[in-house]
Amino acid sequence: MFSFLTEEVAIDLGTANIIIILNDKIVINEPSIVTVDRSTKKLVALGTEAQMMLGRTHDDLVTIRPLRDGVIADYNAAEKMLTGFLKKITKRSSIFPRSLKMVVCVPSGGTEVEMRAVRDSAQNAQGRDVYMIYEPVAAAIGMGIDVSAPEGNMIVDIGGGTTEIAVIALGGIVTNKSIRVAGDEFTQDITEYMRHQHNIKIGERTAEQIKIHVGAATSELEDPPGEYSVSGPNQITSLPVNVPVVYQEVAHAIEKSINKIEFAILDALEQTPPELYADIVRNGIYLAGGGALLRGLDKRLEKKIGIPFHIAEDPLKAVARGTGIALKHSKKYQAVLFR
Ligand SMILES: Nc1ncnc2c1ncn2[C@@H]1O[C@H](COP(=O)(O)OP(=O)(O)OP(=O)(O)O)[C@@H](O)[C@H]1O
Question: What structural domains does the chain harbor?
Answer without folding.
Answer: 3-138+319-328 (3.30.420.40), 151-181+255-315 (3.30.420.40), 183-253 (3.90.640.10)
